[in-house]
Amino acid sequence: xxxxxxxxxxxxxxxxxxxxxxxxxxxxxxxxxxxxxxxxxxxxxxxxxxxxxxxxxxxxxxxxxxxxxxxxxxxxxxxxxxxxxxxxxxxxxxxxxxxxxxxxxxxxxxxxxxxxxxxxxxxxxxxxxx
Length: 130
Hints:
Blueprint: E1 2-3, E2 9-14, E3 25-26, H1 38-50, E4 53-67, E5 70-83, E6 92-98, H2 113-129
């Protein structure tokens, strides 16, 4: 979850170049390359998908789910925007900076939708208490 200075979350919408979840919203991220360090992979994926430079600030949460040919373990990190202007890759066709109150207005992948909403709410509340 990438936060800007106003505390908004960055969401990107999956384009028709994807084989699943087209038109649904998600946080930037992706898969690691073989042998790639987790932090390096996350920085690379964010740069590829958004053009942004980020600073990782902590673990937001984890979950797992099954896809047709693979089991997925999802690690969600909190990140602070360091620099750059968003430019989406071919994987996405839109982006939006969203305040916490607006997170439920967007449609996410059914398997992780509830988890994303809970994680965003918990992360936002934890940030306000520190």
